[in-house]
Structures are given as structure tokens and as C-alpha cells.
Design goal:
The protein contains 4 helices and no strands. It is mainly alpha-helical.
Amino acid sequence: MKSADLRAMSPDQLDDEFLKLKKERFNLRFQRATGQLENTSRVRQVRRDIARIKTIASQKRAGQGPVAGAALTATKAPRKRVARPKTTSK
């Protein structure tokens, strides 16, 4: 699930999606334990989607806008290089 889709949802819709994914994660754990799980990558996808929903929901509750990782690094000023004194070798 894309984060842009999640940001467009209301807090109630996020809660519903969160509960749905928790149930799916529960079912996937049982399938894995009984050896019936065919798509093992789905466990990882669901786990990451849950984390994504929790992050966006907490940002909405705090009143923050979306935070982009690239925007944070772009606003930092570049570090200046400091010239090191030369050492003399014997």
C-alpha cells in the first residue's frame, strides 16, 4: 500500500485498515506455523504496511504534515572541509 493512499484516508479509515491488516497478520502467522503459507513475502509486506499506517496515523494526530526524508537532507547546509596541518615525516 502506498503512503500517498494512506495520507488521503481519514483517521477512522486508517483505524479500519489497521485492524484488517492485524487480522491478516494473525492468519499469516498461523498459516506459517502449520506449513500452509504459500506467499512468504506477504508477511513482510503486511508488517511494513502496519508500521506505515501507525506512522501516518500518529502524524495526523500530532497535526504534522507529511515528512519527506529527501527534504530533510536537502535543507542541511553542506559541511565545510577543514584543512589539516601537514605533518613532517622523519
